[in-house]
Amino acid sequence: MGMAIITQERFNKLIDERVADAIRTKKEQSLTDDFGRGRGSFKVRVTRAGHTWFYFRFTDSQGQQKQIPIHIGSVDESQDGKVGWLKAWKIAECWSGYLRDGHRDDLAAYIACKEAEAEAAANAAKAVKAAEAAKTKAGSLRALCNAYVVQLETDGKPSVKEVKNTFRLNVFEAFPDLADTPARQITSKHIGTILGRLKDRLQAKVQKERDDGPKRRVGNAARKLRAFLIAAFNAALAAQEERGDDTPLAGFALDANPAAAIPAKKYKALSGSGTRHLNDDELRVFLAKLNAVTGLAADGVRLCLFTGGQRPTQLLRVAPADFDSVRRTLLLKDIKGQRSEPRPHLVALNVLAFPLVQQLKKTNGHKAYLFALREVQLQPERLSEVVRDIAKAMVDEHTARGPFTLADLRRSAETMLAELGVSKDVRARVLSHGIGGVQDTHYDMHDYLAEKREALDKWAEKLQSLMEIEPEPVIEAAMPSNVVPIRRRGTR
């Protein structure tokens, strides 16, 4: 937000000074920000006690000065001392617009009319929300799934988009009548019908395509849908026991979880565990092709790979403040699974990753995320597209044994770390998986940064050998976003 005359930061400072002066001198202080000739001004009045009040001042068509109070409370009443005046300034700016619209002589009445309209709209929105809540209380399967999605959004879970789309495609659109059935009437047979549809899709798709990619994708969808339904019913059952009626998940009057009655092994065989990983020759070609791709998404793939195969969803959420250039670390926040609070995951930056993050900080340091396009966080799908395009080209050129995905790069990295002699425990620390038992949660407080750094330094040497470059110390200067800080063997 830009102030009419002075900057927001300067206005913050001036208000602080006026409050301090008023308290010190026991005299009222004031501060005015003019919106321009004939457009009124925003006035701040500071009482002798340091309380701050807001007004909109303007001149009517007769040349008379008028002043309308802005009822927002005083600065000291807000959680943040600047919240009050920012909101009041925006209201004053809106009222300035009313002057431009010709309401100079009836401004107060017009403001009252607009506030009444806003209140009516708010009441209407409340009525709609109440109606939706009533529908939720009716307890359909659709309502339960939607309430679970809302809970995921509230908890900031990265899986919310996938869960929402899975319910939409495989429950709401595939079985609309079943979706509108009361959740307490849903049986394991109903759940089996929903999951069975995915199984049928799997069999039809596998007949058309030879490799196990389609089988894995559809099989994983069936497994995930079962897990999402189990989680949704469990959340509703927990809400009944723990939260009462203050959450959309309460009120379904469930007796059991019908999805939990479906055995996992029935669908595990469909999806299986992914086994695709790149060998040295494939990774060498992939790195060469990746190095020729520019853009933020390609940088994301590079950083995922350079850091040993970190999860893209976590890597793309890092903020500029998460980068420590002194310790050469990047702080990721692992919110995977059912944990309510994210677990900090500290990544040691090797000689390949460090300059890349430096450049990202230089380019996007003023944004909320290091991986941001026009203030919006880059999505993992963009990284998947980069990998998919390179994989397709490699298959067409017969330089890859078969297609591979972004997830396969993570598997490749861990496999090669194991080949480099990195222990299973350290690999788990590097990749932040399987760390949550009693020993790790309550007793082992070591951060394993030294061990992780040693492992990722070995990994950097491995990648450098594949790229036919000489190992170098960390380069402090920022590099172009698509350039790896390397030097070819035999060159100076």
UniProtKB/TrEMBL annotation:
GO terms for biological process: DNA integration; DNA recombination. It comes from the Bacteria. Signal peptide: none annotated. Transmembrane segments: none annotated. GO terms for molecular function: DNA binding. Keywords: DNA integration, DNA recombination, DNA-binding. The keyword Cell wall biogenesis/degradation does not apply. InterPro entries: DNA_brk_join_enz, Integrase-like_cat_sf, Integrase_recombinase_N, Phage_Integrase. Belongs to the 'phage' integrase family. This is Phage integrase family protein. It comes from Pseudogulbenkiania subflava DSM 22618.
